[in-house]
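Run log // design_07
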């Protein structure tokens, strides 16, 4: 017998007045009503607000501000007309310098609460452009018959529906200012209702849009897309299934996006669907900080875990004796090897391995490394930390996109493996959002 779904609790139609106590890890305001925690969008600590409930659960509730009764000093007017509807941003109501301060405070709080460790010294935050910085994205596409319009962009905040937006101020302008034109072009295709998404990949000098199609496009469709690409200086590709099916329009040359690290004289080539950092300016600063911190010499043997296409591996190899990069995705490993050859770097090795599984039988895992670089996904690196007892690195640099798993792993390194947390700090990789990118240094 199937279980009956619990009924959603009836939401009050009247507003509730509260004072915001703090911020949650995702940037929402936190208040308590009748002993229950409520997370409220676009509310800042110290503000008195009237809000409407948007969801009530057993342990917590969610809401949205209807009226500001008092205004925090950090509050500012959002730049985007679609803010609050589109779910792409959650911090545009916060002044830019306050955003990074809040993220630094959040990182500190996570270290203390989750990792049970203190940060002795803070790096100055790495700051870059606040707008037009985003170069990688997966945008949704939806043909709305009632409006006779194709929507292109991101989901509504806390809803599965695509937001009706005309532009995006955090996306690089070559795409961010063209969402309306892109939707109009798709609406003229025979398969306008068979396109669910577009993968955006913008290099230093190239823009590639990979259009996912659920049915084959016609020759006329291809011609329309080709004309649009030439008009807007973009290369349009077709993706029929997975990422490995991305191909140029018929008769068009393949465009391989690139990004450069001028300080290290390195150029990376990448395929449109491959992971790269979304913010090139912060990525350059981040790599420079890693190199300054590790102070590599020819005597260093470095292990780069979760190395991707070699974003840190190749710059480190310019200074270290040897670097070994490990990544779970085989196509990324193959591309990392190609990038090493492309840059004439020969003191690197790359291997594919799932770092959440047993790696004890891997030959590379049974070597000695005196320095280790970590840049895991949001899940963190806890599964691989047990091998640090064997490797005994003298120095660890950990780059994280999730402060809670960084804090958890810091607790393991400090309280179980005998390392000392020396420094930590945040990087403004995702301005106008609640995402927190950070870096930490551990020494034996």
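design_07 sequence
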């Amino acid at each position: 017998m199937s279980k009956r779904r619990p009924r959603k609790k009836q939401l009050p139609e009247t507003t509730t007045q509260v004072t915001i106590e703090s911020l949650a890890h995702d940037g929402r305001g936190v208040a308590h009503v009748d002993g229950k925690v409520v997370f409220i969008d676009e509310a800042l600590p110290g503000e008195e607000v009237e809000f409407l409930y948007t969801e009530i659960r057993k342990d917590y509730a969610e809401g949205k501000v209807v009226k500001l009764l008092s205004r925090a000093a950090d509050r500012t007017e959002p730049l985007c007309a679609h803010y609050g509807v589109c779910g792409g941003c959650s911090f545009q109501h916060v002044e830019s310098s306050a955003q990074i301060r809040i993220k630094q405070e959040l990182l500190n709080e996570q270290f203390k609460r989750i990792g049970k460790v203190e940060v002795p010294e803070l790096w100055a935050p790495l700051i870059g452009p606040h707008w037009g910085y985003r170069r990688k994205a997966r945008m949704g596409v939806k043909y709305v018959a009632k409006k006779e319009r194709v929507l292109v962009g991101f989901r509504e905040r806390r809803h599965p529906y695509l937001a009706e937006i005309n532009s995006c101020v955090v996306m690089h302008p070559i795409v961010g200012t063209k969402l309306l034109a892109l939707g109009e072009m798709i609406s003229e295709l025979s398969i306008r209702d068979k396109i669910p998404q577009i993968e955006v990949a913008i290099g230093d000098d190239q823009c590639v849009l990979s259009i996912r199609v659920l049915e084959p496009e016609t020759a006329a469709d291809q011609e329309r897309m080709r004309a649009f690409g030439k008009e807007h200086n973009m290369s349009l590709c077709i993706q029929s299934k997975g990422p490995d099916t991305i191909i140029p329009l018929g008769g068009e040359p393949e465009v391989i996006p690139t990004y450069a690290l001028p300080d290290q004289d390195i150029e990376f080539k990448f395929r449109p669907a491959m992971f790269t950092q979304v913010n090139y300016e912060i990525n350059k600063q981040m790599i420079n900080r890693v190199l300054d911190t590790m102070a590599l010499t020819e005597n260093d043997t470095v292990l780069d875990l979760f190395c991707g296409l070699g974003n840190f591996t190749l710059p480190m190899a310019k200074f270290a004796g040897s670097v070994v990069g490990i990544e779970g995705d085989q196509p990324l490993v193959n591309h990392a090897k190609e990038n090493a050859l492309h840059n004439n770097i020969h003191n690197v090795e790359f291997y594919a391995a799932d770092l959440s599984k047993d790696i004890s039988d891997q030959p590379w895992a049974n070597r000695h490394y005196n320095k280790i670089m970590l840049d895991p996904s949001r899940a963190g690196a806890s599964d691989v930390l047990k091998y640090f007892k064997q490797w005994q690195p003298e120095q660890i640099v950990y780059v994280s996109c999730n402060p809670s798993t960084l804090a958890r792993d810091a607790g393991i390194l400090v309280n179980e493996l005998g390392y000392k947390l020396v420094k930590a700090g945040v990087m403004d990789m995702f301005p106008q959002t609640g995402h927190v990118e950070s870096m930490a240094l551990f020494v034996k």
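The chain has a mean pLDDT of 95.
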